[in-house]
Please model this.
Amino acid sequence: MHCDHCGRETPPGHHCAYCGADLTAQTHHDPRDRRHVYAANPHEHVYHPGIVSTFFPHLSPPRTHQVRWLLLGGTIVIFLLALARFVPVAIVLAALFVPILYLIYFYDVQIYENEPLRILAGSFVLGGALGAGLSLVSYRSTVGLSLPGFGPSPQAILQVGVWLPLLGQVLMLVGPVLLFLTRRRFDHVLDGLAFGVASGLGFAAAQSIVYSWLLIVGPFQQQGAGTSWALPAIRTTILVPLVDAATTGLVCAALWLRRDPQPPRRALGWLASLPVALLVAALGQVVPNLGSTLWGGQIVDLLWYGGTLLVLLLIVRHVLHVGLVEKARALGHEATLTCPHCGHEVPDVPFCPHCGLAMHATPKRGRRAAATSAGKEQG
Amino acid sequence: MRRWTFRRGLILAILGLSFMACTTTTIPVGPVVPGSTPTPCTVHCPPPARAPVTGHPFQNKRFTLRYYDPFTVVKHDDNSVVLGYVNQDTGNTFEVTFVGEDVPSGTSAQQLLTAAEKNLDTSQLSGVQDLGPIYGAEVGYVAGAGDIIAGTEDLPNAPSSPVVLELMASTHGGTGILFLAASTINPNTRNPGALIRAANSHYDLFVNSVAW
Model:
């Protein structure tokens, strides 16, 4: 088959195996954009707010379903524990739930390749250590900054709403930037995303534990209305970690797009540029924190964080999609892989010609096995 | 010359130890007892003697009061004043506010207090619970009503810390005065899960000085 968009001969299918263009598109949109086929999960639109396919892009469809149900089930369990006012258990689970899930993902798809300790130390561990350090240092100065009946002081607005979130964002980027400088062979946009997300999750977990320490060591069952404990638990379980993961992952994805040696076929667009990613990350940190400080409340806080997460999610997906499509390259295993999404055998090409999956969004474990069987290490 | 015997030595030792015990236990107690306190008192008692500190005067259109170091005026307007204090050694935060307002004739202190509690924004507190009334509540020696509320501060990106709110209200003529004090936990205490409240004497000085 001949692809009119890149001019190459491609195996028969719905998508060009080299540029990913939709060969069956009937719309007026540019088939190379293929916005209805997200490069990391062809069953979803690029602007579908899927948490799992955004932060866990290497997972196969069955694993995606499992993680989706785990996220939902875990959040419900933590919500119910908090509703029953078993606050210490709920807080510890809420703080560690998503980070542990991501650690399992790290292991399952072997993002770290053959350097598990260094990669985990540079992402999860360093992010967690810096999160704990910042929270401990700022603990005393942030206690009681917004007492009920008195409203937030100007100091609270600046400290809790602006400069602590910005400082936190800088610290979340320290580990991934160190990996960027010292581990040059991790050169793909999805590597950057994974390192950034891991660092953000480690940071959020440590911060939640330090800030909730008095509750963790407090009574096993607290007093008061159960909903007043359950609503913040949702924020701690899902929203805060994923906002931190999204902002850090976005900056790292934009950074790693510069590292990728493959020249882009077309311009990546302003949204994928590093300055814009940094600006979006800063806004993603400041907006929910400042909003909650100025116009807060337990339900309103969920809206602030939920709305911010939604916007960040769509931007991250856009950047990942653009990166995967415009900087597509073969994996280099010179063998065939079974596409985890459609089950077809796919040669060593950038895209599955049948479903359009970017083959870089397959687990590294499977790729290594294919390379080994072909007698060649992948690049 | 009389010889020292074991028995005589024992008696002297017991007397010496007794003297030391008396002096060490009475020393800290002595200065605390105010010499001018008119006790015992049963009815129509005068106010207790104040601590020998001068304090700072504050006045707005509604009321006057005196506040005392280390509290400072955080903000004020024609009807209210907020006083604040952060203990730099412990991180403990105290804030006190007095609000004066017109109330319909016949409004009781309890009604004013209930209205204030309804308007109190506790949306960022978890586990709010009413710890009970403040017995003998008064503002400016005008008998009133009081209540204590506790909860855990739940501000994103800040520590979850127990908070105690103490409210008192008094009405006099067509004016009501509302007192609200908030204090946070001291994270350095041995039992950081315990609720910490400012010492009553802290607030008594402010509350007793109010005149309107």
Observations:
- Chain A has one domain: 51-326.
- Chain A touches chain B through 51 residues (CB under 8 Å).
